[in-house]
Amino acid sequence: MRLPRIQYSWKALFGDVSGGVIAALIALPYGLAMASLMGLPPVLGLFTSLLTAPVTALLGRNPLLIGGTSSVTVPFIAEAVRQQGIGGAAKVTLVAAVIMMVFSVLRLGRFISKVPHSVVTGFSCGIGGMMVLAQIKLLSSMKMAAGANWLEPFLLAIAVTAACFVSNRFWPKAPAPLIAVIFGFLAAWGFSLREPEVGYLTLALPPFAGFAWTPKDVYTVLPAGFGLAFVASVNILITSRVVEHFRGRRRSAKRADADAELGAYGISNVLAGMFGAPLSVGIPARSLANVRCGGTTRMSNLAHAAVLAAVIGLGSGVLAHIPIAALAGVTAWMGFCLLDWSAWRRIPKMRKADAAAFLSTAILVLGFNAVAAVAVGCAVYGVEWMWNRTRSTNAGSPVSAQSSA
Q1: How far apart are CA 228 and CA 93, in angstroms?
Q2: Fewer C-beta neighbours within 10 Å, C or N terminus of the chain?
Q3: Residue 285 · residue 49 · CB < 8 Å
């Protein structure tokens, strides 16, 4: 039996490498900033991509879906780090990874992907607000070096945030976070600002996260892990759908594809959790940049990880001197982007249930708990369904028929 020849041209290779390079350049400042926001060593935000990319590239159904550290995981992992350190992050990530695999085996992907859009948007807005407020708190509490002006980190962060907006406005295809971080690095160096820095990064594997399971984890880690798995699954499946749309594929994906994608990310996140790295989910910015730059196969995902590893290995001396305030500015910009101002303007035109789900989810993420936020947002539609069912039952009852007569 003659095996079919695999068609892979130099043009396809160039497109995959181009897409992988841009995705890696976007991942660099984004991963560092997200890990810092969670309270983890910044390099772990990059190791999420390095550890999971080969697995998702091999087992995932969407070849151009690029994963990494995401803002949607921040509230879950940051709380775990606050309570138990890196070991807490490892626990929550491992539990979420196993639950994602359970979702895949039970074939729940088709249902998870149908979470109401207003809940997803509200969650994103809540995360955006939390990211902005967290950076203000970080800059306020930052211990400045001797003789430094307390105003300097605020001004540097604001300048980096503005650089992100300007870059994204005039060069939308360029990696705005990377341009802004370079700008912040040069500004700190040019004005001799003595700011706290990221510190030396190494490509060597981090040590395994140490932790011990306790009975208390049943009502602390387990609910957080389930909430993280649910939110991450929604993010992965929605991002995959968006990527397919931008690829020009309008047909709906097969139901089995959603389950296989969750299984691939569940398996890959076991690796991330072993080292205490944040959970990997689909990243829209990297995935769409990959598509726009010519990526067409799984090689683009592997190229993204390879370039990221090369940058860390060869440029760690430069990366070590990135000011923390510059990463805070990038994080604040990403928070402003997630706020989705168009959604807030549409509230008066929304259905009551949509507006209630959107507002309750956003407010609860910002002020209370991410798991409760998603649960309450989805519950709004359950209440609406029960209300409509009750009204239709009463309308068709004999008493209603007699009164109408």
Answers
A1: 8
A2: N
A3: no
